[in-house]
């Protein structure tokens, strides 16, 4: 099939499901967003004080069944705070998948730590725990309950595993590997609100989890995020340094260490609370959208492209619907994306793998055959819950 004919067939399949749209994933406001925001303005509670902060925090806690939740002004801030809470520093390496958003690498560098890039599994799009275990056996040793890189002599302190596009990675095996090598597991569940691994919400199975409520996520606070943890000590520390490390006092201003102005505002929390009240509706819509896409692509283009399906025994929020080109069409990704966008069908490739970005190329990495292959074949297509 010629590339133009393949484009026409893909375009026709998408149009069978949705109307033309220039947005990949846009917010959908159908609840009390305006009412709650106007209430904040009326009460002058538009910054870091107000009733919606506590309500939203409690709602997230109840929904995810996380023992502690700390709201932040972005998902990136949440990752940074997570790394600070484990005292990540210049003598530490932080592992993460290369098939990833830039935030984990940047936050690692904020802490003067070394990013260390690992391979993914094509079945989950997340960290491949079997290859990771084999790799760690070759390049590391454990001493005094710490894992060290044989070559750099640095402490491999943590693994930030990303649940890509809302799909769970193999957490059972990954947790076993992290325990074996005494590596702290941090879950980047920024894209995964409403996704579950064997009935447990993503972000609650590691030592620390991170959520994002950016404008393109399944629910939004405009900008915002959250840290999830079962540790009272970690929660207390993150809340303190995320509030500029101010010592509590009725009127004096004093601080006990470097702190960060990472608090969420009441306005953002108000928006988030209204959105979270409709989470089950959004999840239902996005699953319907996946099922429609899956049906038309399976019927018409199964030999050329597939749509990524949630891993077995897991429940995904289907944040971004993901086409994966078959190997024979691997060179057509950019052509197809350009043509789809020209027809007002929003599409994009996955982010550039981290180990291929200029200022990150010097850092340690595994062999990246799967990552580099998927990078050439993934196309995200319109995924908003209001498309059907």
Strand order across the largest sheet? 1-11-10-7-6-2-3
Order of helices and strands: HHHEHEHEHEEEHEEEEEHHHEEEHEHE
CATH architectural group of the largest domain: 3-Layer(aba) Sandwich
Write down the CATH class of the largest domain: Alpha Beta
Describe the structure.
Helix 2 (33-43) packs antiparallel against helix 9 (266-276). The longest helix has 22 residues, at 279-300. This protein is an alpha/beta fold and 388 residues long. It starts with a helix and ends in a 7-residue tail after the last strand. The protein folds into two domains: 3-27 and 279-387, Aspartate Aminotransferase, domain 1 (Alpha-Beta Complex); 33-276, Type I PLP-dependent aspartate aminotransferase-like (Major domain) (Aspartate Aminotransferase, domain 2). It is globular. The strands form four sheets. A seven-stranded mixed beta sheet has the order 1-11-10-7-6-2-3, sandwiched between helices. A four-stranded antiparallel beta sheet has the order 12-14-16-15. The protein has helices at 3-17, 33-43, 51-64, 75-85, 103-110, 129-139, 171-180, 232-241, 266-276, 279-300, 333-342, 369-377; strands spanning 68-72, 92-97, 114-118, 140-143, 146-149, 155-162, 184-188, 196-197, 200-201, 208-212, 225-229, 305-307, 314-315, 321-325, 348-349, 378-381.
């Amino acid at each position: 099939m010629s590339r133009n004919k393949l484009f026409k067939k893909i375009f026709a399949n998408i149009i069978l499901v949705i109307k033309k749209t220039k947005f990949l994933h846009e917010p959908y406001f159908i609840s009390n967003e305006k009412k709650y925001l106007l209430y904040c303005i009326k009460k002058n509670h538009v910054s870091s004080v107000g009733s919606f902060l506590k309500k939203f925090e409690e709602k997230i806690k109840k929904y995810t069944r996380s023992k502690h939740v700390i709201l932040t002004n972005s998902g990136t801030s949440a990752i940074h705070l997570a790394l600070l809470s484990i005292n990540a520093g210049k003598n530490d390496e932080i592992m993460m998948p290369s098939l990833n958003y830039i935030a984990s690498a940047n936050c690692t560098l904020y802490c003067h730590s070394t990013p260390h890039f690992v391979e993914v599994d094509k079945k989950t799009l997340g960290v491949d725990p079997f290859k990771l275990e084999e790799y760690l056996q070759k390049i590391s040793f454990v001493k005094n309950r710490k894992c060290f890189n044989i070559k750099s002599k640095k402490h491999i302190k943590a693994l930030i595993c990303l649940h890509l596009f809302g799909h769970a990675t193999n957490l059972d095996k990954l947790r076993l590997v992290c325990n074996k090598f005494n590596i702290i597991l941090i879950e980047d569940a920024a894209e995964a609100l409403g996704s579950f691994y064997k009935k447990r919400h993503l972000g609650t199975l590691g030592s620390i989890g991170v959520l994002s409520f950016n404008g393109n996520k399944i629910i939004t606070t405009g900008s915002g995020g959250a840290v999830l943890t079962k540790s009272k000590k970690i929660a207390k520390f993150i809340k303190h340094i995320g509030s500029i490390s101010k010592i509590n006092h009725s009127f004096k201003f004093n601080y006990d260490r470097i702190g960060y102005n990472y608090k969420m505002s009441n306005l953002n929390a108000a928006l988030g609370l209204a959105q979270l009240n409709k989470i089950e509706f959004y999840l239902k819509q996005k699953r319907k959208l996946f099922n429609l896409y899956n049906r038309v692509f399976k019927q018409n283009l199964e030999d050329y492209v597939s749509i990524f399906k949630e891993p077995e025994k897991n429940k995904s929020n289907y944040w971004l619907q993901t086409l994966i080109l078959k190997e024979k069409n691997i060179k057509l990704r950019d052509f197809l994306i350009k043509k789809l966008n020209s027809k007002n069908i929003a599409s994009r490739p996955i982010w550039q793998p981290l180990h291929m970005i200029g200022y990150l190329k010097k850092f340690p990495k595994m062999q990246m055959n799967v990552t580099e292959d998927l990078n050439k074949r993934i196309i995200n297509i319109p995924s908003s819950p209001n498309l059907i």
